[in-house]
């Protein structure tokens, strides 16, 4: 069985796309080959690494990379996870589906460290729920609430 090749695209490939890549690797590795990239590369956000580790997913070895246009023809699906990436996404080949999964940017959270970490945990949990829903749909399983 050929694995579907999926790329998560964000502005800086530091938080949301990294978390999405980590979740899909963790939950769907047998069916998907997953990558993430950014319109720019900002490096991974240490808070994203920390909240994913809390959930048992190690994203510390994933790379923060700029989108390489050469990967586009090899993809089955490109998923943008922020409005900026969706708006500035390059044209994708016709064989590649494009979806937009908007998530709030936890890196823009303000307040105490506890409040900021809560925003990262909220994003982590929202991304996990969306990735889980995607896996169920891809497998033809019924949606659970």
Per-chain topology:
Layout: E1 4-10, H1 16-28, E2 32-38, H2 46-54, E3 77-80, H3 83-88, E4 97-100, H4 113-138
Helix pairs in contact: 1-4, 2-4
Describe this entry's structure for a reader.
There is one protein chain. The protein is an alpha/beta fold. It has four helices and four strands. Helix 1 crosses helix 4 and helix 2 (46-54) packs across helix 4 (113-138). A four-stranded parallel β-sheet has the order 2-1-3-4. The chain has one domain (4-138): Response regulator (Rossmann fold). It has helices spanning 16-28, 46-54, 83-88, 113-138; strands spanning 4-10, 32-38, 77-80, 97-100.
List keywords for this structure.
4 helices, single chain, four-stranded parallel sheet, 145 residues, alpha/beta, Rossmann fold
What's the gist of this structure?
This protein has helices spanning about 15-30, 45-55, 85-90, 115-140, and strands at about 5-10, 30-40, 75-80, 95-100.
């Amino acid at each position: 069985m050929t694995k579907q090749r999926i790329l998560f695209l964000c502005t800086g490939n530091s938080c949301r796309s990294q978390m999405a890549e980590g979740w899909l690797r963790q939950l769907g590795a047998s069916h998907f080959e997953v990558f993430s990239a950014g319109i720019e590369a900002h490096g991974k956000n240490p808070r994203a690494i920390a909240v994913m580790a809390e959930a048992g997913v190690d994203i510390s070895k994933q790379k923060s990379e700029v989108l390489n246009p050469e990967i586009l023809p090899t993809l089955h699906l490109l998923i943008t996870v922020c409005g900026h990436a969706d708006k500035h996404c390059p044209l994708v080949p016709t064989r590649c589906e494009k979806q937009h999964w908007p998530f709030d940017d936890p890196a823009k959270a303000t307040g105490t460290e506890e409040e900021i970490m809560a925003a990262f945990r909220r994003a982590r949990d929202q991304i996990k729920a969306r990735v889980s829903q995607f896996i169920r749909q891809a497998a033809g399983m019924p949606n659970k609430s």
